[in-house]
Amino acid sequence: MAVATGLQERIEAVRASVACAAERAGRGADAVTLVAVTKTVDRSVVDEAYALGLRHFAENRVQAAAAKFARPLPPEATLHLVGQLQTNKVRPATTLFSIVESVDRASLVDALEKEGARAGRVMPILLQINVAGERQKAGCSPDAAPTLLAHALSCPHLAVRGLMTIAPLVDDPEETRHVFRGLRELRDRLMRHDGRVELGILSMGMSNDFHVAIEEGATHVRIGRAVFAG
Length: 230
Ligand SMILES: *Cc1c(COP(=O)(O)O)cnc(C)c1O
Known about the structure:
- This protein has helices at residues 7-24, 43-51, 62-68, 90-96, 106-119, 145-153, 177-193, 210-215, 225-228, and strands at residues 33-37, 56-59, 78-81, 99-103, 123-128, 158-164, 201-203, 220-223.
- The chain has 230 residues and is an alpha/beta fold.
- It has one domain (6-228): TIM Barrel.
- Strands 7-6-5-4-3-2-1-8 form an 8-stranded parallel beta sheet.
- Strand 1 (33-37), helix 2 and strand 2 form a beta-alpha-beta unit.
- The longest helix has 18 residues, at 7-24.
- The model has no long low-confidence stretch (mean pLDDT 95).
- Pyridoxal-5'-phosphate binds next to strand 8 and helix 9.
């Protein structure tokens, strides 16, 4: 049996699984964006992944990302912040990242809006939702989401693009299906509630469970280990 060990082979394997899951869900493979989470690898590996065709990258810490991406990515690449953001790091975060996926509280909305106004820039964001209600995890509760969304929509320097969630880590990814379905249903409710809001992005699914997330409607999957752990 051939064992895939190289970065190129792992990227191809992940792409194939993404395409399969999308097909099972009756969606095209291009309906799902592969976001490579690069927090465990250094810049040379990111550049290698870029050379192999990946265009979307994510980090979970502002300071580590600032060092890694001191030399910016090519303009067609995007860099996503997927970890908790402290309000005192909002300025470096908004200059470095293309989108902040982890907006989970009003104080962070306010800080991002203030910085956007100062810099004269509109920052794309996702609202991070703690669907499973895990106590130790970041994210706004589903019940509080309508209020947080209304608050973010009132900010002229923020563009709310959708929702993000992190599912509990479990052995059987099927156990997380209700979490992903919950995020999609919340998105649908929020859009019904306010017909003008377009929450096109559902960022959900990681290495262990992305196929389930895609079946439940993920538009963006955040993959670290499956691509980079060789
Ligand atoms: C690390 C990380 C990922 C990627 O996780 P893997 O299990 O390595 O695929 C996705 N999302 C967030 C928020 C992360 O911190």
